[in-house]
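call fold target=sn-glycerol-3-phosphate-binding periplasmic protein UgpB
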Amino acid sequence: MNKFTLAAIAAVMASAGAAQATDIEFWYGNTGPVETAIKAQCDAFNASQSKDRVNCVGQGSYEVSMQKAIAAYRAKNNPVLIQFFDAGTLDLMLSDAIEPVQDLMPDVKWDQYIAGARAYYETSGGKLVAQPYNSSTLLFYTNKTLLEKAGIMQTPTTWEEVMDAARKLKAAGNACPFVTDGDTWRVLEQFSARHGLPIATKNNGYDGLDAEYVMNTTFAAKHLANLVEWRNEGLVRLAADTKAGNYTAAFNAGECAMMEQSSGSYAAAAKAFDGKYELTVTMAPMYKGYERRNTFVGGASIYVMKGRGKDEIEAAKAFLDFLRKPEQQMFFTANTGYVPVTNDVLDAIAKSDEANSPKYATAKVGVESMNQPATPATRGIRLGFYVQFREVFMEETQKAFAGQQTMQVALDNTKKRGDQLLRRFEQTYKGKKLP
């Protein structure tokens, strides 16, 4: 047998091996720096071995990804892995379209996941249905340079201190002391969680589909009314009030001095501030007299969808194992600001040469915020048609900010319309038991 024959046989064998590689699709909903990081992880996984190949396909947004995945499942051409955001958890749990990751991967040390991330994606019995991935939480961002110019030498930790600082900033000529977009996740969900307040009965829906909204009767209603008053006083600006029409961009440009925002926004803020301003990131402010509780996890997790073959499931499990590695979580945190999802990663960061690097600024504070003492009201949100509820909340509260109705009327209307959504969801899944 000559060398050319051997080479030909080797080529055929290599081709056969490549043909046996299992290809799977992973659909995700992020754009910008987060999408760049996701693609980098997909490339790294594919380069790390030759047995499996993951094709990562961006869908543009969480909502679009969710809608397309369900439609694809019904048409029996769904991907094996799908990234779903926090608000879609109950819809996915009851869809019968997913396989709980803890059933598929029983040997994984799932108790290593930080409590705040686990709780949101667990069944009532404590079983994880999805693997937390790009996990964020709400943090408080300040432009330390602007604060110090106004004579504010300490980062505010309470809402009372935030507004005292806002008044000093305004007096110093700053037209945008504190900025927000009034988003449901920020001003209702995360506010209620860290203050230990329920959004709905039945422990925010965890104890049954017959829950009802109560956020119009809790201290959250007072906070939202305060935001209206503070805006009228010139202390708070909404996104539409800023030059850019985008509240994060306004903060990053130095137009606004303080904001509440996801930890996932850190990378962009740090890049924008580099060489211009000093950035601080701390836990979101509390009202005096309230004991701090855990903030909710934001972002999304990865689900394994039904309807795929054994080899595809094995490839999916291998990719999930890869993403769970400490070095991959550290890469994702450093490049996006999303927080690690397992407790061992904090130790890995602490032992690294870059333990005090700004790129890990959100890791410790974000995990600390989600690991604060929990209550039944701070486990998460398990309410039907919650994506639509968020839209209702925004529609009604924006009318209040515009002076078209009081904030209390806005919240009463939101409760009424939200309860109608819950009853429709309850009827849709009549007789179905919550997992």
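return ok
DSSP finds 19 helices and eleven strands in the chain. Residues 407-428 form the longest helix (22 residues).
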